[in-house]
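Good morning C.,

I know you're traveling, so I'll keep this short. The sequence:
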Amino acid sequence: MKLRLLRADDQASAAKGVTVAQQMVAQHAFGVVGPFNSSVGLKSLPIYRSGGVSILRLTSASPTQGYGVTDQPMDVQVAPVEAREITQVLHASRVAMISTTRRPIRRGSPASCGTCWLPPVTRR
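The tokens, ready to paste straight into the viewer:
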């Protein structure tokens, strides 16, 4: 058996993710590592599944559960832990979060992250 590595970049874009998934299915890929972004996975994972491609996804949004396997904690697992940390460890009574969609989040780089967490505004 000979393996061939197929490379593709969805560029953190759901539309591009659909195109990449269609290309991978057309090239008879037997497995995929990705997508990284849940927003991309919501659109591309059904294409991989219907094409019979094995999936190791890096998404964490709950709606992507059931599509292959992941090594990422799901959002429903992380949120309660974060809430306990904020309220019980930091004793915060208010928290602020700023989110922008001007830039896509790419490869987990904090420098390119479009979402920034701020420290608690007030403490008890």
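Safe travels,
E.
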